[in-house]
Design goal:
580 residues, Gyrase A, domain 2, Isoleucyl-tRNA Synthetase, Domain 1
């Protein structure tokens, strides 16, 4: 049930009738006609921009269109009033019985209320985290992990067929550095004194890996050159780090469908196949690039190279894919990886990168556009930094990783639910301040507590009602007469519930799961406002003197809890049944 879509359908049908009657010309495009909440709730329950967007192509005064449309809409039994405002906006007020239908719809559908078929089963690949397998995940990875996981859940809720994917960057020089660092810990496990040179990984998390290597191979690698042990230690170390990363993700409630190894692209012909595909489209050539302005990237050479004509697909400059010595640039395996995604039949691709990958956006979009002949869109979401505070002051935690605060440090301190919700209280491309004191504070200023408290309050009401012997099952509540829920505070809560299905589709369409967190905070606010009004107006309390008087109030509260539970489910947060 999507009330906004239903009313928009009425608007479109009315516009079609106006075309048939000659009031509007034929051939108008109604795609940009919207029905949405008005900016000022005092103006009504909904508003449509129909007259404003159609006035120019129809060559008519927008107020003239709005007034004709208002007359058509008033015929619908759900529309109590249609008022023209300003130059041609049309504000709608709905009959109070409509809101009862929203509450009943939520009770009948349960957490499926708001689910959408918008995605129509389209296959979407969401790649996120994809950290180098050289150590535990840090707090920056945490934000990307939460964002990507919530986005995947949101898209699933909106009817997409979603694959969660982690790209293991195990094909570059960093895994050799990892192997050398583990080897030092291995020697340490054999009682030797070692020194970690610049560029190695000194974190204590590798101590156990060195000891495990000793347990596996004994002293076979002691005193031996890299030619003997590097390949074996590299594989052993990467496997150990991926086991650690999987455990870190699990502590946050993140499970991947696919772990894809970069190393699998080398020596298998996959990079060559991707480049051959581009070459067949006349997008690969030999040339020399001009030196870039500003910082010179590692893959630039002032000599002839093999280049990808990425400017043909929207990039600023063409990009090197093979160096003059025949070695692949960092970009080449990324092209091959995305070529594989396209070949796997995904309809849409989403990559979640850290803010330091901004320079990769245009080139990757160009590559996917070229590889898919423009068929598969790629959306790249950049997640900004997380700044740690405590009581408003910069907070420095002990760093078990040696150089950074880990994901596990944060989860151990505040829990997975708090971590996930807080990470979604800002849009992902804006910096996030994570205050360890604030996120555990029991106040309206803490959105985690505020939303969880709303759900817990409803659970408390249900427990008390059940203690009275009242049947408060969703099936029973869905059949209750709600016509008495007419107070302004009750209607505001029901009106907010009606926005949920629309909000889901908007958030999914824009790939912005933070909208869910914002909405839940607003919905919780309406529940708390109604609860507080009950302190002064006894007839608004959810529990009245009798079962018959209480059930309509409880039905509204329970519908609110259903939506909060569904929204928290998308965010990967368990709803609280009581607050301690």
């Amino acid at each position: 049930m999507n009330l906004f879509s239903d009313i928009r359908a009425v608007v479109i049908a009315s516009l079609d009738a106006m075309v048939a009657e000659g009031v509007l010309p034929e051939g108008l495009d109604f795609a940009n006609v919207a029905v949405e909440p008005p900016r000022d709730a005092a103006h009504g329950d909904m508003a449509t921009n129909a007259a404003m967007v159609l006035a120019k192509p129809a060559k008519k005064n927008p107020r003239e269109i709005a007034e004709a449309l208002a007359g058509k809409l008033m015929v619908d039994a759900r529309v109590a009033l249609a008022e023209v405002a300003g130059p041609g906006f049309l504000n709608l007020r709905l009959e109070t019985g409509v809101w009862a239908g929203v509450v009943q719809g939520a009770l009948e559908s349960g957490t499926a209320f708001g689910r959408s078929d918008m995605g129509a089963g389209r296959k979407v690949n969401v790649e996120y985290v994809s950290a180098n397998p050289t150590g535990p995940l840090h707090v920056g990875h945490t934000r990307g992990a939460v964002f990507g996981d919530a986005l995947a859940s949101l898209l699933d809720y909106a009817g997409y067929d979603v694959t969660r994917e982690y790209y293991i960057n195990d094909g570059g020089a960093q895994v050799d550095v990892l192997a050398r660092s583990v080897y030092l810990r291995y020697l340490e496990a054999h009682g030797q004194d070692v020194a970690f040179e610049d560029g190695t990984y000194p974190g204590d998390y590798l101590v156990a890996v060195g000891e495990a290597l000793k347990a596996k191979v004994g002293d076979a690698f002691v005193g031996k050159g890299e030619d003997v042990w590097l390949e074996d230690v590299r594989e052993f170390s990467t496997d150990a780090m991926m086991e650690l990363i999987r455990a870190d993700l699990a502590s946050l409630g993140v499970e991947m469908d696919v772990f894809y190894s970069e190393k699998s692209l080398y020596g298998t012909g996959q990079i060559e196949a991707a480049i051959a595909d581009l070459k067949g489209k006349d997008l690969i050539y030999r040339g020399t690039l001009e030196p870039p302005k500003g910082k010179v990237p590692e893959d630039w050479e002032p000599r002839e190279q093999i280049l990808f004509r990425s400017t043909a697909h929207g990039d600023d400059v063409d990009r090197p894919i093979q160096k003059s010595d025949g070695a692949w640039t960092y970009f080449a395996p990324d092209i091959a990886y995305h070529y594989d995604k396209v070949q796997r039949g995904f309809d849409e691709l989403i990559d979640v990168f850290g803010a330091d990958h901004g320079g990769y956006v245009k080139r990757m979009k160009a590559a996917v556009s070229a590889l898919s002949d423009g068929r598969v869109p790629l959306d790249i979401k950049l997640t900004q930094l997380v700044r740690l505070f405590k009581n408003g002051e910069p907070f420095k935690m002990s760093k078990r990783a040696g150089t950074f605060v880990t994901l596990r440090d944060v989860v151990d301190l505040v829990g997975a639910d708090v971590t996930r919700f807080v990470m979604l209280t800002r849009k992902q491309d804006a910096p996030l301040d994570f205050d360890f004191a604030k996120v555990l504070e029991q106040s309206k200023d803490n959105p985690v507590f505020y939303v969880q408290y709303a759900h817990a309050r409803v659970c408390s009401v249900l427990r008390k009602a059940q203690a009275e012997g009242w049947n408060t099952s969703d099936a029973v509540l869905a059949k209750v007469d709600l016509s008495g829920n007419t107070h302004e505070a009750e209607l505001k809560l029901a009106t907010k519930l009606a926005e949920w299905p629309r909000l889901v589709e908007i958030a999914a369409r824009t790939n912005e799961p933070h909208r869910i967190a914002f909405y839940l905070y607003e919905l919780a606010g309406e529940l708390h406002a109604l609860w507080n009004r009950g302190n002064d107006v006894p007839e608004l309390r959810f529990l009245q003197d009798s079962e018959s008087a209480s059930l309509p109030k409880i039905a509204l509260a329970r519908a609110t809890a259903i939506v909060i539970s569904a929204g928290l489910g998308i965010l990967g947060v368990a709803p609280a049944e009581e607050m301690r």
